[in-house]
Amino acid sequence: MTDLAARVAAVLERSILPSVIARGAALRVVAVEDGVATLEVTGSPGAVLPLASRIEAQVRAAVPEIAAVRMAAPGQRPPSEDAGSLADRARRILDTEINPVIAAHRGYVTLVGVDRGLARVRLEGGCQGCSLAEVTVRQGIEPLLRARVPGIAGVVDVTDHEAGKQPFFSAEKR
Question: Which of 20, 74, 84, 134 has the fewest beta carbons closer than 10 A?
């Protein structure tokens, strides 16, 4: 590990990893090239998104030679296709493999967009406000999209669950 990579790793260990681990993910430095630190995200990459700007700010403040921080899934290669085709492929998987299954719970998933390998989804119908929505995303939707759509590193749920009118499993059913 280069000195620069070691310094980035030290920043992660000192101030960032406890928050990341608490959210169900892990980070490690895999490369530092041309001022860009690439961090491998394992576990639930979508859970790291709320911390991404804080992670980058802390790394850049502690290691001024770093101009940007890039998050990557294990073994992820830089996407060769444009975001539109990545979104189209993710949407096709949602429509053909995921939505037919969750329709039994009066629910469906809509792809809001794909940005930097993260698919933003909104759960609707019986999934909006469901007490098992996080399980559906982390153990169902995210692993399937990551497996079927190269370039998807994680899934972020952007649903307003508080607005759910008829969740399949209400909070009281937990």
Answer: 84
Residue 112 pairs in a beta bridge with none
State both tokens at 109: 């998933």
Does the pTM surpass 0.85? The reply is: no
The CATH class, in words, for 83-173 is alpha beta
The Cα 20–Cα 68 span in angstroms is 19
Cβ contacts of 76 within 8 Å, gap of 6 or more? 117, 151, 153
pLDDT tens for each residue of the chain, 174 residues long: 789 999 999 999 998 898 888 888 888 999 998 888 988 888 765 666 667 778 889 999 999 999 888 877 676 544 444 444 889 999 998 988 888 788 878 889 999 999 888 999 999 999 999 888 888 898 889 988 988 888 899 999 999 988 888 887 776 654
Q: Spelled out in words, what is the top-level CATH class assigned to the domain 3-72? A: alpha beta
What interhelical angle do 3-11 and 52-62 show, nearest 10? Answer: 130
